[in-house]
Amino acid sequence: MTSKASSPRLLDLVRERIRVKHYSIRTEQAYVDWIKRYIYFHDKRHPKNLGCGDIEAFLTALAVRGRVSASTQNQARAALLFLYREVLGVELPFLANVIQAKASRRLPVVLTRIETQRIPVCMDGSHALITGLLYGSGLRLMEALRLRVKDCDFERGEVLVRDGKGAKDRITMLPGRLNTPLQDHLSKVFELHRADLANGHGRVYLPYALAQKYPNAPTEWSWQYVFPARNLSTDPRSGELRRHHVSEQAVQRAFKQAVRDAGIHKPATPHTLRHSFATNLLESGYDIRTVQELLGHSNVKTTMIYTHVLNKGGRGVKSPLDAMQ
């Protein structure tokens, strides 16, 4: 491939189109990475000189040689379809000859109620609060990290999740047990925000060009992150120096260590708390449609996985061994 074929120009066009469609920066990074891998797989040939068969070869190699999961292969496919349809203006027929990666049908890891109580005790500060929200509100990790001050309604006991998975908003509960520690935490964050303003900073990232529509919003208290990062950082898109939210990796590392310290021998991650939230609600007798709404699932079939975790499937099945007198 010539230097022109691998030039940043193509990737710049990809990034520009992604931002026009308001995709997240995580999606942007993932799509750009897959497009790079696709180009290198075909010896740096320009994608406009490649076709459906070349895409099929790349995706098949991911499944056969790379042994990637079905979700990973689907992400790569989505990235390439985006490249051709949105950037190169090429409509591709259905990719019928792709060998699909086998979708796993594993049940989610779930913690007991006692285990969920032991983990936050082994964590400090904001990490413990984030863990409490993941389990107490059923949030995804990034949903918790992206919470703004205005999204927490202490009077109503609600958390408003903005722009969750699938660009959907939803309301879930704010655990009463977290009221006092969360309000104490916000008092410290408020002082941090005041200090940032005094030092000429204090502007927070706003999506969908809201900063242009409401010029004062980026510095307003209500728009600040509930869990701000310890240090200022440079925004990768705008280049502006400001305070972002806590790092996802930092919470994951702290959680992993807390699981070890709590003596829990399960492959638990922060997302395990969301699974535990759903399972424990169903165990308590809550309707599956209610749990579906709290989780933000589009289809109740997604929520039904937790009935399999309970091993009840809608019926309280009792082991024959336990039924013996």
UniProtKB/TrEMBL annotation:
Residues forming coiled coils: none
Start and end residues of each Core-binding (CB) domain: 5-88
GO biological process: DNA integration; DNA recombination
Domain spans labelled Tyr recombinase: 106-319
Annotated Pfam families: Phage_int_SAM_4, Phage_integrase
Keywords: DNA integration, DNA recombination, DNA-binding
InterPro entries: CB, DNA_brk_join_enz, Integrase-like_cat_sf, Integrase_catalytic, Integrase_integron-type, Integrase_recombinase_N, Integrase_SAM-like_N, Tyrosine_recombinase_XerCD
GO molecular function: DNA binding
Family: Belongs to the 'phage' integrase family.
PANTHER family: PHAGE INTEGRASE-RELATED, PROPHAGE INTEGRASE INTD-RELATED
Protein name: Integron integrase
